[in-house]
Amino acid sequence: MPGARSVNGLIIAAPSSGSGKTVVTLGILAHLKSQGMRVASMKSGPDYIDPAFHARATGLACLNADSWAMRDETLMAAAATAGENADLVVCEGVMGLFDGASATEGSTADIAQTTGWPVVLVVDSRAQGASAAALVKGFDTYRDDVGIAGVIFNRVGSERHQRVIREAMAFAAPHIPVLGMIPMESGLELPSRHLGLIQAAEHHGLDALMAHAGNVIADHVDIDALKALATGWAAVGEVKPLLPLGQKIAVARDEAFAFAYPMVLQGWRNQGAEISLFSPLDDQAPAADADAVFLPGGYPELHAYRLSSAERFLSGLRDAAARGATVYGECGGYMVLGRGMQDADGTTHAMAGLLPLGTSFERRRLHLGYRRLVLIADTPLGAVHGRFRGHEFHYASVTSEGPGAHLFEAHDADGAKLGRMGQANRNVFGSFIHLIDREAKA
User: Fold this and answer.
1) Which residues are catalytic?
2) CA pair distance 346, 31, nearest whole angstrom
3) If pLDDT is split at 50, 70 and 90, which confidence band does 189 have?
4) What whole-number distance in Å separates Cα of residue 97 and Cα of residue 119?
5) Which CATH entry fits the domain spanning 5-235: 3.40.50.880, 1.25.40.10, 3.40.50.300, 3.40.50.1000?
6) Is the pTM of this model over 0.85?
7) In CATH, what number does 248-438 get?
8) Are 165 and 130 in contact (CB under 8 A)?
């Protein structure tokens, strides 16, 4: 393939969420970097939080890899970008290895099949002995096109526990190397909240935790054997998932607005846009010369009073809209564009008032899943009938909406109709959906 770059990579997956793959991945990244290796990372699925942890470990942006929501060329370009300055790309899986948008689409296994990168399975071995080997054998044989290249047993107990697992692996799957046995260790827990782990910026002991995890990996995992498993994928292209909102895009960035995909921002840069950052929590207004403003998702509900009191931010947002700049919000950013946000205690905080929307966290209701989207309003992201794929994950309820035009006609990953979503008011628009990529043309 002309211009293709061979990107050396491997995938850290698990049978299920909660197996410890994030901490194991962070430990591997931290240890490899401490040894002077140029290591980068990717994250399977639509996650925002794990990539921020990866970036702290490597010093490089972590790009997502999503076999359901991304076009093939976007996935390939993301891998090429990740591998530009790296000797090895470590891709962390999502949920269980074979879990995705449906029983047959969007899993980490699909990333492995597409890239050819080997899968290293992290197995939580608490409360099981020989059964852990049976589990590995089952995962190795579940799909003909995806096998297990190596296994790391996590949260192992006594020496006898280790011996039982090794003997069972020698019987059940002798061709799969046991790369490590990680014992039960204190100080390796990552705290969480309703949307998953707390953000990297909020974890004040993160660097110490990653250093500890790196030491544990060095002591209990055969890192040379792990690196030797990596294989190359001939990836090519520049990431360009979404059309830029403008030529000078002001992007909100702080603990309330942290959920912007690095791939989307890099894609805008790749198409000639300039990006400036500002902090609404510090009462900063978007750049006065910006012709577009992007409010990503995050946790604005945790900072609702502070945001409602941020006069320079809110005034700057309204001024941008008044002078004709594009103003776009996703999820939490969308809620801030509305009239008011009710926090978990039932107190309503005034927001920007640029869209006819009221939201509440007093009675939480989970909205979760991949989304197929068709534009029903003209925007800089595309014209009417433009198609996208994205993801929705929030607990907010809509208390008031409209009157006004909607932004999308939405379906879930299985094709079920979800109705109309989002709002569009001339140059101001948004929705609860985190857009990932344009949809490939039929």
Assistant:
1) 331
2) 46
3) confident
4) 9
5) 3.40.50.300
6) yes
7) 3.40.50.880
8) yes
